[in-house]
Amino acid sequence: MANQLTFKQAKENNFKRLEQYVAIVDRVHGANHPEFHDVRKVFETIIKKSKEARVEKPELNEEFSQLRQITDNYKVPGDVCESYEAVYNMLEEVDKAYSA
């Protein structure tokens, strides 16, 4: 498992794009997928805690647990765009790196 990303690497790879995509996906798909509003709220909490933390890996266990529950373990709905899928894939990558 030498190729497993660290949380810091996963943040660097994904957070900037996620900050752009999450708001757009919420606006585009939120009406048909209201659970995405919750995904956005939890993600915003993760961003806030990560920026405010004075440690490399802030306490985010609860937030990732909520995301797994809301997204049914990042299962992509069948009627969404590639950006929605990309958000779930990036969130899952960050979650796995955090949990490793």
Please explain how this structure is put together:
By secondary structure, the chain is mainly α. It has one domain. The protein is built from 4 helices and no strands. It is globular. It starts with 6 loop residues before the first helix and ends with a helix. The relative contact order is 0.23.
Q: What about the largest sheet?
A: none
Helix percent reads 55-70%
Compute the number of strand runs. Answer: 0
Number of domains: 1
Anisotropy-based shape: globular
Radius of gyration: 13 Å
Mean pLDDT: 94
Compact summary:
The chain is mainly alpha-helical and 100 residues long. The chain contains four helices and no strands. The longest helix is centred in the N-terminal third of the chain and has 23 residues, at 7-29.
